[in-house]
Amino acid sequence: MAEPKAPRAPVRELRAPAAAPAQEVPPAPMAEEDEHYTFEDYRDFDDYGDAPEQDHAEASGYDDYAEAPQDDYAAAPQDDDDEMPENYGPAPGAFDAAARPELPVAQPRKAKVEQPVRKPVQRSRRAQQEAQPSLGFDDSESEFELPPLNLLMSPDSIERHHLSDEALEENARMLETVLDDYGVKGEIVSVRPGPVVTMYELEPAPGLKASRVIGLADDIARSMAALSARVSTVPGRSVIGIELPNDKREMVSFREILSSRDYGDGNGKLPLALGKGIDGDPMVANLAKMPHLLIAGTTGSGKSVAINTMILSLLYKLTPEDLRLVMIDPKMLELSVYDGIPHLLSPVVTDPKKAVVALKWVVGEMEDRYRKMSKMGVRNIDGYNGRVKDALDKGEMFSRTVQTGFDDETGEPVFETEEFEPKKMPYIVVIVDEMADLMMVAGKEIEACIQRLAQMARASGIHLIMATQRPSVDVITGTIKANFPTRISFQVTSKIDSRTILGEMGAEQLLGMGDMLYMAGGARITRCHGPFVSDEEVEEVVSHLKAFGPPDYVSGVVQGPEDEKAGDIDAVLGLNTGGNTGGEDALYDQAVQIVIKDRKCSTSYIQRKLGIGYNKAARLVEQMEDEGVVSAANHVGKREILVPEQA
């Protein structure tokens, strides 16, 4: 038993030197009591810590034992100062521990704030010319003069509000703290202040889903004490945009946008001044490229003001020779101020039943334009107007071939060529202020007209601007949405309404009063702040336009086309249930036989006897009245049978 205990003594002897260096060189006494290696002496060495390393290495004799005191010195407080020369260079004075954590934070934040809104908007040539004093020369050849910009409120009278860079940086740091509280790791890399909202660009940490940040919009708004917050991805970039409203909202000037180069010097055929983007730059869209626009928003969201700004955008750019308008206003208040301007094709339509007639007239006009362009061999309205301009410059006439009858001998049709004066085709813009009222009165016919126009009217120069304050599925049907790729949504009440108009959420978080989301051609969504135009400014522009004479109304817009043409339009729209023209003739003959035999004639009676719809029965009765089969209705609605009873 004594033999195995003998080798354990040398093991204890080998372990004894390992504990000795650790006791001889404790880290705390070296910093306070050692006279040779104090903190001040270390500052004079070129290589910190070389002297203690040599002493310990000589005392222990092992490299492993020399590393232990070095680690102890690295953990000592004086070695925190030793790390500074590696990153920031030698400190000139005593080490300040409070200033150290601010160094990596303060430097990158100085370049975060971008102020694009402070740069002045470049004015167009027209705005520069109007700013010059007039010399008093009158152009006698000009029959129409576009409205001057001085009819609108000057942008100099608008108070501008700008947050300082320090305040924006403080908000960015606060937003980072809020996001970190919700477990969202990232850094605010840029701040873009605008007239209404400020966008903070978040660079998320790797692996962070954008949907998680988007779902925190309401919580971010509450934590930042904001009215609302909108979170969305920025197309083409790796950042996430967080939009927070400004404390003081800046009003967007309509005159400033009309004076910009984007509007005045742009090449758009039908420019619409939408407003300003988040960065403060003017946003101008081209209705001819959209080609139709659908607008939705609740009461007070700025929808009606936006329609007024769009109408004025067209009136400030185009003459009545270039643009004609058809306005439908079931509310009878919003668009009635434009009655009497020379751009109108008819008085402002306020009756929903007459609105159906007006839309059918527009469909018929589209069909006529397509026939004219087909005979000229052009593909769109610009090509047709180019041919007209060339013919007028050369003094030539247009010719067309028409059928005049049939040959008595052969029975073949006879054609003749006739000449007519070339006439320019103006653009036609149909503006409907409240679509829900029309859908309640004649939903099927309205939807058929809108679908036909939205599908085919672009090449003929006919465009639609339709607005509604109730973006539900029974008003904005799937057929209408499919044919209106360009949409604008103002503030709505719920996420469901936002999905109905835009296909995604976000419109319920808008601020109202002109704050909108603009979806161009089914692509990405852009936030825009619409300009404000007062009723007095609209009246000034309308008074200027009315001074150039009364409008040239087209009677068929409200009264409707002829019966034969109306039947063709209904057939095109798919509203006829009686079949083709031959079937209608047979149906009319059958209705005449019933009236002569029964000696009774009313729309409901024909409807019951033939099992047809009310519109078709009314059309048959009107046709019998025109051909003298029955008389006009008396004061009680009864008609006399003018054809004698058959034996």
TrEMBL record:
<dbReference type="GO" id="GO:0005524">
    <property type="term" value="F:ATP binding"/>
</dbReference>
<dbReference type="InterPro" id="IPR036390">
    <property type="entry name" value="WH_DNA-bd_sf"/>
</dbReference>
<feature type="compositionally biased region" description="Basic and acidic residues">
    <location>
        <begin position="36"/>
        <end position="46"/>
    </location>
</feature>
<dbReference type="InterPro" id="IPR036388">
    <property type="entry name" value="WH-like_DNA-bd_sf"/>
</dbReference>
<keyword id="KW-0238">DNA-binding</keyword>
<dbReference type="InterPro" id="IPR027417">
    <property type="entry name" value="P-loop_NTPase"/>
</dbReference>
<dbReference type="Pfam" id="PF01580">
    <property type="entry name" value="FtsK_SpoIIIE"/>
</dbReference>
<feature type="binding site">
    <location>
        <begin position="297"/>
        <end position="304"/>
    </location>
    <ligand>
        <name>ATP</name>
    </ligand>
</feature>
<keyword id="KW-0067">ATP-binding</keyword>
<keyword id="KW-0547">Nucleotide-binding</keyword>
<dbReference type="Pfam" id="PF17854">
    <property type="entry name" value="FtsK_alpha"/>
</dbReference>
<feature type="domain" description="FtsK">
    <location>
        <begin position="280"/>
        <end position="499"/>
    </location>
</feature>
<protein>
    <submittedName>
        <fullName>Cell division protein FtsK</fullName>
    </submittedName>
</protein>
<keyword id="KW-0131">Cell cycle</keyword>
<keyword id="KW-0132">Cell division</keyword>
<comment type="similarity">
    <text>Belongs to the FtsK/SpoIIIE/SftA family.</text>
</comment>
<feature type="region of interest" description="Disordered">
    <location>
        <begin position="1"/>
        <end position="142"/>
    </location>
</feature>
<dbReference type="Pfam" id="PF09397">
    <property type="entry name" value="FtsK_gamma"/>
</dbReference>
<dbReference type="GO" id="GO:0051301">
    <property type="term" value="P:cell division"/>
</dbReference>
<dbReference type="GO" id="GO:0003677">
    <property type="term" value="F:DNA binding"/>
</dbReference>
<dbReference type="InterPro" id="IPR050206">
    <property type="entry name" value="FtsK/SpoIIIE/SftA"/>
</dbReference>
<dbReference type="InterPro" id="IPR041027">
    <property type="entry name" value="FtsK_alpha"/>
</dbReference>
<dbReference type="InterPro" id="IPR002543">
    <property type="entry name" value="FtsK_dom"/>
</dbReference>
<dbReference type="InterPro" id="IPR018541">
    <property type="entry name" value="Ftsk_gamma"/>
</dbReference>
<comment type="subunit">
    <text>Homohexamer. Forms a ring that surrounds DNA.</text>
</comment>
